[in-house]
Amino acid sequence: MNDMIKTMLNHRSIRKWKDEKISDEILDTLFNVANRTSTSIGMQTASIIRITDKDKRAKIAEITTQNYVNEAPEFWVFIADHYRNNQILEEANAEKNYSHDVDRFFSGVTDAVLMAQNIANAIESLGMGFVFFGSILNNPEELVEILELPKYTMPVLGIGFGYPDQNPQIKPRMDYKKRVFENKYEIYDNYHEEFKEYDKEMNEYYDLRNKKNSVGPFTEQAVQKYSSQQKLRQKIFEVAKNQGYDL
Questions:
Q1: How far apart are CA 107 and CA 109, in angstroms?
Q2: Do 15 and 68 touch, CB atoms closer than 8 A?
Q3: For residue 246, which phi and psi values (nearest 5 degrees)?
Q4: Please, where are the H alpha helices in 130-190?
Q5: What is the pLDDT of residue 214?
Q6: 3-state SS of the chain: helix, strand, coil percent to 5?
Q7: pLDDT at residue 109 in the model
Q8: How far is CA 79 from the centre of its chain?
Q9: Contact, 214 vs 205, CB < 8 A?
Q10: Mapped to the 3 state alphabet, what secondary structure does the chain carry?
Q11: Which of 55, 62, 155, 187 lies 20 to 30 Å from 92, alpha-carbon distance?
């Protein structure tokens, strides 16, 4: 097993970092890693916005309800970006322009997520730690304003990272056989029964955000989390339409 695989299997989300600046050399390396990420049909439809402005950070922290947005040495937002290519078509007076149809929208989202995971792997390989922020989309409309995004762009995911100042437990994962199938989707008769052992594992896991209580069985978490909605997150497609996408 090589060092990269060991690092990936040892992944933990990090939410507390040392007060240590990341060098320009390392940042340049990470930007190059992002730039070399696989991309649908070579169109490179993802971009990064590095948030260094404290006021913008604070506003994003309010959206996420997670103060460590302010505390991360680096905080980036990954963007599905078709503005660039749309402008190329506009300048070329292209007879047809499908740069913002539903297919392009999802390819941009995929490009952004692939870029984020590529960066995440590089971050950990350099001895740093990160946490993803899906919560940037708690209020996508406000986030678009904060980031001053033009048409044909859409925020997808945030990441905060730096040198770790904590050492959390590795969060248990369900047996990969419950997620990896062959030739067809595997359906079980009773999912609570199938996840009984995993529920026990999760009940023994303590997240550093709540040291006094375990996170509880996975099946109970699923019921709790899928029984509620983030109301503003239901507007994601509406905001994407306002951004010019034909969804």
A1: 5
A2: yes
A3: -90, 80
A4: 140-147
A5: 78
A6: 50, 15, 40
A7: 98
A8: 10
A9: yes
A10: CCHHHHHHHCCCCCCCECCCCCCHHHHHHHHHHHHCCCCHHHCCCEEEEECCCHHHHHHHHHHHCCCHHHHCCEEEEEEEECHHHHHHHHHCCCCCCCCCEHHHHHHHHHHHHHHHHHHHHHHHHCCCEEEEEHHHHHCHHHHHHHHCCCCCEEEEEEEEEECECCCCCCCCCCCHHHCCCCCCCCCCCCHHHHCHHHHHHHHCCCCHHHCCCCCCCHHHHHHHHCCCCCHHHHHHHHHHHHCCCEC
A11: 155
**What type of residue sits at position 143?**
L
pLDDT at 211 (0 to 100): 67
Q: Look-up: residue for tokens 């047809």? A: 96
Tell me the β-bridge partners of 164: 17
pTM of the model: 0.94
Q: How far apart are CA 123 and CA 107, in angstroms?
A: 24
Half-sphere exposure of 84 (CA within 13 A, CB side): 9
Radius of gyration of the chain (CA): 20
Give me 66's structure tokens. 């997670």
Structure tokens at 227: 């029984």
* Gap between the Cα atoms of 81 and 86, Å rounded: 9
In one-letter notation, the amino acid at residue 23 is: S
Gap between the Cα atoms of 41 and 119, Å rounded: 20
Residue 215: predicted pLDDT? 84
Give Cα separations from 220 to 99, 176, 195 (angstroms).
Answer: 42, 20, 11
| Cα angle 78, 32, 30; round to 5 | 65
